[in-house]
Write a structure and sequence with these properties.
By secondary structure, the protein is an all-alpha fold. It contains 8 helices and no strands.
Length: 192
């Protein structure tokens, strides 16, 4: 039974890795569709947590997410199969392109294909963001933190201030931990 699950997981991740253009953020929508909506191997709330963990841990979000989903559904061998499967298509394509890279870039049709792919990737990433926002618990803390982050990102973009997305993640994570600890302290004081 577990071997069958690992094989199914491998081919699902291989398909996702093969048809995802735009990197890990573009992959989020495909992962959610495949493992939350269709197969129902992961709950929506757990998927949101997985995205947050995959984003805040070192390494590419796609590989982190694949590893988590693989481990959750089929243990260590599942995580290994999912990670390898999601990386194989990119590795094969990049290796093939590297063999004749200069000739590949000089083709006009390739340049136009990349322009079209860029537009599609923007839509996929935006769509994934909208889905994640819809599924976010709408409480005062989450809305305030989201709004503050969005406003700060817009201000930094408007004034051309280079502020890494890593810092947004670390700051929001720190604020979340601070709020959690503050809530525990208040609960302790209220119980006395």
């Amino acid at each position: 039974m577990k071997a069958k699950q690992i094989i199914r997981l491998f081919f699902c991740m291989l398909k996702i890795g093969l048809f995802t253009f735009g990197g890990g953020y573009a992959m989020i929508a495909l992962l959610e569709n495949e493992f939350v909506s269709e197969k129902k191997w992961i709950e929506k709330e757990e998927f949101l947590d997985m995205v947050a963990i995959a984003e805040s841990t070192p390494g590419p979000i796609a590989i982190n997410a694949a590893t988590y989903i693989g481990y959750k559904t089929a243990g260590f061998l599942g995580s290994l199969a999912a990670t390898v499967a999601v990386c194989l298509p990119s590795l094969a394509i990049i290796y093939s392109i590297s063999l004749f890279f200069d000739a590949f870039l000089s083709l006009k049709i390739v340049a136009y294909a990349f322009k079209g792919i860029q537009a599609g990737v923007i839509y996929i990433i935006f769509s994934a963001g909208i889905k994640l926002f819809r599924e976010l618990r709408k409480n005062a803390f989450n809305i305030t933190l989201f709004s503050a982050t969005a406003v700060y990102m817009l201000v930094c973009s408007f004034f051309a201030v280079n502020f890494s997305t890593v810092f947004y993640i670390l700051i929001c994570g720190g604020v979340g931990v601070f709020a959690y600890l503050l809530g525990k302290i208040r609960k302790k004081e209220g119980g006395k």
